[in-house]
Amino acid sequence: MKNVTDSFVSLGRWPSAGSFGFNIDILATNPINLSVVLGVLIFFGKGVLNDLLDNRKQRILSTIRNSEELRRGAIEQLERARARLRKVEMEADEYRMNGYSEIEREKANLINATSDSLEQLENYKNETLHFEQQRAINQVRQQVFQQVLQGALGTLNSCLNSELHFRTINANIGILGAMEEITD
Q1: TM segments (predicted)?
Q2: How many Å apart are CA 106 and CA 179, to the nearest integer?
Q3: What are φ and ψ of residue 174, in 5° steps?
Q4: Domain ranges of the chain
Q5: pTM flag (> 0.70)
Q6: SS3 category, 20
């Protein structure tokens, strides 16, 4: 083993003209070492790198396909939602128009019912006024009749004496007797 290490140490002392040896100058050997390492990596790592890149490419393509499918699904859902929205808006407009027409019908019915009620109230008012007028007229008639009767009785009582009274009674009895004979 000592021979092998001696040979490496002795190689470091040999002049570099035409011989093979280790150059310990880091600046001169670095690009060469890097190119050798890169060449070895490219040669041996080419398959591994290609496999990694192919796997990455397949994952990216798969992700793109999934994204496209999701986008198409989202577009279809959006179109269905827009169609439903249009349908609902049309139904809402229809309900709104039907509601307005229903409101107008109810309004007209309410106006007609109110008009009928007002007409009935007017008729009841007129009947009540007519009834009250008739009652007032009857009361006035009764009062006038009472006053006339009282006046007539007063006049009769003041003008009648017992002889006139006796003659009136006899005349009435005679009229009643004549009427009785006619009916028999």
Answers
A1: 32-49
A2: 74
A3: -65, -40
A4: 32-136
A5: no
A6: coil
